[in-house]
Design brief:
The complex is a heterodimer of chains A (106) and B (996).
Chain A lengths: L2 E4 L4 E4 L4 E5 L13 H8 L8 E7 L7 E7 L5 E6 L8 H4 L10
Antiparallel strand pairs in A: 1-2, 3-4, 4-5, 5-6
Chain B lengths: L17 E6 L2 E6 L4 H7 L6 E2 L6 E2 L12 E5 L5 E6 L9 E4 L14 H4 L8 H5 L4 H15 L14 E13 L3 H12 L4 E4 L16 E2 L2 E2 H13 L4 E4 L2 E7 L3 E7 L13 E13 L3 E3 L12 E3 H9 L8 E6 L3 H11 L3 E7 L7 H8 L4 E3 L1 E7 L6 E6 L6 E4 L2 E5 L2 E3 L2 H5 L5 E3 L4 E3 L7 E3 L9 H18 L12 E3 L23 E3 L4 E2 H9 L5 H8 L12 H12 L3 H4 L13 H5 L16 H6 L3 E5 L2 E6 L7 H14 L2 E4 L4 E6 L3 H8 L12 E7 L5 E11 L2 E6 L4 H15 L6 E4 L4 E7 L3 H5 L3 E2 L12 E7 L2 E7 L7 E7 L3 H14 L3 E2 L2 H10 L40 H4 L4 E8 L11 E3 L10 E11 L4 E9 L8 E6 L2 E8 L14
Parallel strand pairs in B: 1-7, 8-9, 8-15, 9-12, 15-28, 17-24, 18-19, 18-24, 19-20, 34-45
Antiparallel strand pairs in B: 1-2, 3-4, 5-6, 5-7, 10-11, 10-29, 13-14, 14-15, 16-25, 21-22, 22-23, 26-27, 30-31, 32-33, 34-40, 35-38, 35-39, 36-37, 37-38, 40-44, 41-42, 42-43, 43-44, 46-49, 46-51, 47-48, 48-49, 50-51
Helix pairs in contact in B: 5-6, 5-11, 7-8, 8-9, 12-13, 12-14, 18-23
Classes of the chains: A mainly beta (106), B alpha+beta (996).
Chain lengths: 106, 996
């Protein structure tokens, strides 16, 4: 079971308190009705699903209830950072050295 | 002495602690502290089981958790019959009853042993290749027969009556293994002030000190030192010592699972749990898991009486038991000499030490020679005699030559030691091959962990303790502990071993057809592994699965390295090029009881009951599970079956009235200055203009345009909405709302509060509903003009605060009375008194479903399935046409969602009104078309409607609304059922009854 640092509670809590909520930094278009079919497909259906560093949303659902963002290595399951919703996406290069799956070797 | 093979003056057990136990119906005596294996050996019982596949007689191989052979059943009572218990782990208690397994009619004479004669047919991959045809025969014939003939113990057939406990624990330093190294590490870690947990799988810590009598630490015999160190640790406030506790799984972020055996060693466990699962989160982990001795791989090396050298030493030095009276030793390694020396000093004859090495040397060799033991260097054991107990060994020069038979009654073997890197590997560490010692050792650590002692390849005791003490101190300091630790324990004497070889011994090599066992528990021989390579297996993972080497419950603790060496040799590669198979949890078998723990029976899943649950029970409601909720399904009266009860309830509601417990509906309060704006975004409907006091049926979509949930929403004030959701959707709807509020529309000032549990809801439906509630309502005008259909008021019912909704899910005049949950039952009782006077009934979910279907009201999740748009469901009217945004607005405009031919919700009336269609049944246009037919839709809801006097159904059918009046068919096993497509409303088509 992973420990996840909630940026709102400012402490590590067990994974059981959290729920995964999909890829992070996918903003709903402000003028959503003006989106082309392709653009809407990209927004709603297409996800990066990387091997290595992933930006994703989590919710501290059995805690403070807040949604936040996380940087996680999908190979090692290691969390590199968690940060509040709305904050800038941290640069992947910061974690590349520590990531086990940073480069897709397949 | 207790048992013929006890030797006075040896061992650590007290002769006073006598215990009686039985094995296969025979009574024996053991001593307190014995394992079942040591007690049986003390009584000269070597034959303890039959092997998995060939039913070969098997004896005790080891003295620890690595035991592959000595698996027995332990029977406490009719329900407590534990199979596959390792006799080397099970401690004897007074009255213990053990039985052998996989034999019939008896252990000594086993019919199944005929498999051994047919063994050429049972080689690796045999099942895969042989039982392929005919296909159906596998499940019907081959598999049951094979399962009956093979296998080990029999699973108990009654529910497990035992209790299992669970603990979560946090510590600074977790030390796994209580051998000398683990104890040394725990001591220094504890001295720094860090919180320490040390666990050991045996009844007492001490590890190899149990047999290694040549070690002296801090001026004491190794075992005595270990007990004192343990006592010191146990006395420290910051240390928890767990014995009989196996660390079986190492997961992410230093999360380690331990299984503690609490009651299995006691004659009367009393009210103790049987086992306790520890889930430990450690800031630092020190692995001191030791090493496991390997056997020699030679012909018939599985005969009872052949065992690991260190096991024989353990039985002698700890339990005071000699495993034979005329013992042979087969060594590829120094440590076997120590066993011979100990036994010789205890008065046991040593027939010979057969050493594969041409020129053994060193202190142990000299000592053995000095004791007059016959050492035969450069020789190999190429076979043994004795089926149920070894009786002789055949010895030849390793390079070939004349052979010689030497009579023996036990044979001790050692081909070296395998460091236990299981937990390190589970922590995702990659092992590195050390060519000089031919073993795999820990390399880089992906977690905050370190290995010390034998599991780290540190063989010398002094070096191991120094390494361990330093690691313990470092681990403690790394967690912020600052106190000074003492120096490593001083090692005054130790045993130095070297040598060892993985793979086959002479006589079991390339062309040999002998049975030289690599994996005893799965009956895998050296020949099987070579055959796997010959048949094209290249990866060690494939070799493992093809032969099942290392796949038994012992997880290949004694066999993996041998198997790898043999495969590498057959492949013509180096061992490290072939690589090790993956180590997976659990390290040793863990009971389902320990894992499931308290989460069974009533505690498996929470049960949610409404405030009126007791009333429903008293009125003999039959309940149905809806998620975790218990909901009254129907209330049968004397002599009624479900059908009759539902028909009566349905008719009564429409003729007079009914009371329905609607408390399980999800309820969310949406509050704040931007509440209406938020509702506009989350629901398809317009909300800005809904007046306070009025209600609206809301439809919620996902962004893709499909219906996600629905429910009636009441506006209590300009900034306050009382939202209801489906029972099953309550949690996810709140999550969905929170998601958008927090991340997409954070500018909106809105607060969301779940109030599902706070309000008890009593639906009163039917022509008499107003009369039933009227006597109890205060402060609300119930007149139709003052409280029209789809409105809400706050007031009092039975003197308690209430939200009174005028709404209907039945199509009748109806109300939903919301009162604080604590008053739910009292208010229900009051309304029920009045309802009874009016001839009304209580009704359950089945009647609720029928009534709403008669009106064509959908249930999200039954009439929709996540691919249904509002228009598909006939709810296009619920979309605010002037709205510029809501969740799902863009999804609805996707080409596929606007295309012609979509499935639309329609009513179905069977041609024969008495036939009730199956829900989920497929619909076709032409029942005579060839199979596979083109399906144009399916039935979503179907009931007998007492009020309509016929069956009714809802269905999703392609272009359904354009097919009104058409006949379609529902193919069933007994022929196609004809039905006519029509409107979704079956009763009161004009909808007049809701207005009373």
């Amino acid at each position: 079971m992973l420990l996840i640092h909630c940026p709102y509670c400012e402490e590590e809590r067990p994974e059981l308190e959290f729920r995964h909520a999909g890829e992070a930094h996918v903003a709903r278009p402000v003028e959503i009705t003006a989106e082309s079919d392709e653009a809407f497909e990209g927004y709603f259906f297409i996800r990066a699903n990387p091997r290595g560093i992933a930006y994703e949303r989590w919710r501290h659902i059995h805690g403070c209830g807040r949604f936040f963002n996380a940087v996680r290595d999908t190979v090692s399951d290691r969390f590199f950072a968690t940060y509040k919703a709305g904050r800038k996406k941290p640069d992947a290069a910061k974690f590349a050295g520590a990531a086990t799956g940073g480069k897709d070797k397949r | 002495m207790v048992g013929a093979n006890r030797i006075a003056g040896t061992g650590r057990l007290s002769a006073a602690g006598r215990l009686a136990f039985s094995f296969d119906g025979r009574s024996y005596q053991g001593l307190e502290g014995d394992t079942l294996a040591s007690a049986l050996l003390a009584n000269d019982v070597h034959l303890v089981g039959r092997s998995f596949k060939y039913h070969r007689p098997r004896g005790v191989l080891s003295a620890g958790t690595e035991e592959p052979n000595a698996l027995v059943g332990v029977h406490r009572d009719a329900a407590r019959r534990t199979p596959n218990v390792r006799a080397t782990v099970q401690e004897v208690y007074d009255g213990l009853t053990a039985v052998s397994q996989n034999r019939w009619p008896s252990l000594a004479f086993d019919i199944g042993a005929i498999n051994d004669l047919f063994s050429p047919f049972f080689s690796a991959g045999f099942y895969y290749k042989t039982f392929m045809w005919p296909k159906a025969a596998w499940a019907a014939f081959y598999e049951p027969k094979i399962r009956a003939a093979a296998g080990l113990g029999v699973a108990p057939d009654r529910p497990d009556p035992d209790r299992y406990a669970a603990r979560y624990a946090h510590c600074d330093v977790l030390v796994v293994g209580g051998g000398a190294a683990g104890l040394a590490a725990a001591l220094t870690a504890a001295e720094t002030g860090a919180r320490v947990i040390i666990c050991d799988e045996q009844a007492a810590p001490g590890g190899a000190m149990r047999f290694e009598t040549g070690a002296r630490i801090d001026g004491e015999e190794g075992w005595a030192w270990a007990q004192k160190a343990t006592a010191r640790l146990a006395g420290m406030d910051n240390v928890r010592v767990l014995t009989r506790t196996t660390a079986f799984g190492y997961y992410a972020q230093n999360f380690v699972a331990l299984a503690e055996r609490v009651g299995d060693h006691l004659a009367e466990p009393g009210d103790r749990p049987r086992e306790r699962l520890w889930q430990v989160r450690a800031r630092r982990v020190v692995l001191a898991t030791g090493a496991i001795e390997r056997h020699m791989v030679f012909a018939d090396n599985d005969r009872p009486g052949i065992m690991l050298a260190s096991a024989a030493r353990t039985y002698l030095n700890h339990y005071g038991v000699c495993v034979g009276r005329n013992v042979g030793v087969y060594a590829g390694n120094d440590s076997a000499y120590a066993a011979a020396i100990d036994l010789k000093r205890a008065g046991v004859a040593i027939a010979a030490i057969v050493d594969l090495r041409e020129t053994p040397k060193g202190a142990l060799y000299e000592e053995a020679r000095g004791l007059g033991i016959d050492v035969l260097p450069g020789r190999a054991v190429i076979g043994v005699d004795g089926r149920t107990r070894v009786s002789s060994m055949t010895v030849t020069p390793r390079t070939g030559g004349p052979s010689r038979r030497i009579a023996i009654d036990a044979l001790l073997t050692s081909s070296g030691w395998t460091p236990s890197v299981h937990l390190y590997s589970q922590s995702r560490g990659k092992v590195a091959f050390d060519a000089s010692t031919q073993r795999f050792l820990p390399d880089a650590y992906p977690q905050d962990c370190v290995s010390v002692g034998a599991c780290n390849g540190t063989d010398d005791l002094a070096a191991a303790l120094k390494e361990a003490a330093a690691a313990g101190e470092r681990a403690g300091r790394a967690t912020g502990a600052r106190a000074k630790a003492t120096k490593a324990p001083r090692v005054d004497a130790s045993e130095g071993w070297s040598g060892g070889m993985p793979g086959v011994a002479p006589g079991a090599g390339a062309d040999a057809a002998v049975k030289a066992f690599v994996d005893f528990q799965n009956d895998v021989t050296a020949k099987d592994i070579r055959q796997a390579v010959r048949e094209g297996m290249r990866s060690i993972e494939h070799v493992k699965r093809f032969t099942t080497n290392g796949m038994a419950t012992d997880q290949g603790k004694t066999s993996n390295l041998h198997g790898l060496a043999i495969a590498a040799d057959a492949l013509g590669k180096e061992m490290h090029e072939v690589g090790l198979t993956t180590f997976r949890p659990p390290y040793t078998p863990v009971t389902f009881g320990a894992l499931v723990n308290q989460a069974r029976g009533a505690l498996f899943d929470p049960t949610r009951k409404t405030a009126m649950h007791d009333w429903h029970e008293k009125h003999r409601a039959v309940f149905e599970d809806v998620g975790q909720w218990k909901r009254p399904w129907y209330y049968p009266r004397a002599g009624e079956d479900m059908h009759e009860a539902v028909n009566r309830e349905c008719a009564t509601v429409r003729q007079t009235a009914g009371l329905f417990d609607a408390s399980t509906l999800g309820k969310i309060e949406v509050v704040g200055p931007d509440a209406a704006a938020f509702m506009e975004l989350l629901y398809t409907n317009p909300w800005q203009k809904l007046e306070p006091g009025r209600c609206r049926y809301g439809v919620m979509l996902r962004e893709d345009g499909f219906v996600y949930d629905d429910g009636v929403v009441g506006r209590l004030a300009p900034d306050r909405f009382h939202v209801t959701t489906t029972t099953g959707g309550a949690a996810r709807v709140l999550n969905h709302m929170e998601d958008y509020l927090q991340t997409e529309f954070p500018h909106l000032k809105v607060w969301l509060t779940s109030v599902s549990e706070q309000w008890a809801v009593i639906a009163v439906q039917g022509p008499k509903s107003r009369d039933i509630i009227a006597p109890f309502v205060e402060g609300i005008d119930l007149a139709d003009a003052a409280l029209p259909h789809m409105s809400v008021r706050e007031g009092q019912v039975c003197g308690v605060p209430a939200r009174l909704f005028r709404m209907s899910f039945s199509g009748e005049l109806g109300f939903e009375v919301n009162v604080p949950a604590d008053y739910g039952e009292a208010v229900w009782e009051a309304l029920w008194t009045e309802a009874e006077k009016n001839g009304a009934c209580a009704y359950g979910t089945e009647t609720m479903h029928v009534l709403r279907a008669e009106k064509g009201f959908i249930i999200v999740g039954q009439d929709t399935d996540g691919t249904v748009t509002p228009d598909d469901a006939g709810l296009a009217w619920a979309i605010g046409k002037k709205k510029t945004d809501f969740v799902g607005i863009r999804g609805l405009r996707r080409p596929d969602l606007m295309a012609a031919g979509r499935k639309q919700l329609v009513g179905l009336r069977t041609r024969d009104p008495n036939i009730v269609l199956e829900e989920g049944a497929q619909i076709v246009a032409d029942p005579n078309q060839p199979v596979p037919m083109t399906m144009i839709g399916h039935v979503t809801s179907s009931y007998w409607s007492q009020n309509c006097g016929r069956s009714i159904a809802l269905a999703l059918i392609a272009d359904g609304r354009a097919r009104m009046g058409e006949t379609v068919y529902v193919p069933m096993p007994n022929g196609a059922i004809a039905a006519e497509i029509g409107q979704t409303v079956f009763f009161d088509e004009k909808g007049e009854r809701v207005h009373g």
